[in-house]
Amino acid sequence: MARSPRAAKANLEAPRGRTGVLARTPRAPQPSRDRFGRFTEWIARAMGTPAFLLILSLFCIAWISWNTLAPDLWRFDSQTYGFTVLTLVLSLQASYAAPLILLAQNRQDDRDRVQIEQDRQRAERNLADTEYLAREVVALRMALTDMSEQVVTRDVLRQELKALLEHLETRDAAVSAPLSTPAPSTPAQSGPVETAPAESV
Questions:
Q1: Helices 35-47 and 84-180: crossing angle, nearest 10°?
Q2: CA–CA distance from 58 to each of 42, 68, 106, 116, 171 (Å)?
Q3: 85-113, pLDDT tens digit by residue?
Q4: To the nearest whole percent, how much of the chain has pLDDT over 90?
Q5: Can you tell me the distance from the alpha carbon of 7 to that of 13, in angstroms, rounded to the nearest whole number?
Q6: What is the pLDDT of residues 17-42, one digit of tens each?
Q7: What are the angstrom distances between the C-alpha of 173 and each of 166, 168, 176, 180, 183?
Q8: pLDDT at residue 143 above 90?
Q9: Cα–Cα distance between 141 and 134 in angstroms, integer?
């Protein structure tokens, strides 16, 4: 099936490598449905802040102070056993924090992979645009060169025609000069004029 001239012209004017890209309508970014992944990223991001370290330190200090200075009836973690409950709580927190951080890192790796692919496609489009612009610049330079050559040819032709006209004018002047000068007159003969004898009747 033959393509229309308009489509062929559009293909010639568009840079290579951009076929179909300009015609596509950009889609609106859709929100991610991975809520658990966003939750893990939020946890990993929160655990890497000074505020989390400060809160955890205050929690441990308050826990140890309460179970050391409070009355024996109010204590829930015996100092005699080395704060076993606090150790279990911190171990549980660490055991859950490590997988959450790994999940966040995996999501970041996937995001980086997608970003690298987009950068590669963008680099290919930029390369195609650069090649297209280079071809256009070369075409413009060739057109300017042809125009300058045409101008030089016209100047040379004008000079040749001017010289030829001068040569023709000089030749016409040389030919018409002898025709315009008057011819010399013959001198009159001197002496008596002989008369023919009259015939007798």
A1: 100
A2: 22, 15, 31, 42, 118
A3: 999 999 999 999 998 888 888 888 988 99
A4: 28
A5: 10
A6: 545 444 445 555 555 557 888 888 88
A7: 11, 9, 5, 10, 19
A8: no
A9: 11
DSSP 8-67: HHHHHHSPTT-TTTTTSPPPPPPPP--HHHHHHHHHHHHHTSHHHHHHHHHHHHHHHHHH
What b/e string do you get for 50-78 counting C-beta neighbours within 10 Å, with b at 16 or more? Answer: eeeeeeeeeeeeebeeebeeeeeeeeebe
| Beta carbons within 10 angstroms of residue 110's beta carbon | 11
Q: Where are the alpha helices (DSSP H) in the chain?
A: 5-13, 35-47, 50-69, 84-180
CA distance 67 to 76: 7
Amino acid occupying residue 196: A
Tell me what pLDDT residue 196 has. Answer: 46
The pLDDT of residue 199 is above 70: no
Q: Which structure tokens are listed for 138?
A: 């070369």
Whether residue 179 has pLDDT greater than 80: no
**What is the band of 52 on the pLDDT scale with cuts at 50, 70, 90?**
very high
The structure tokens 């005699």 sit at 80
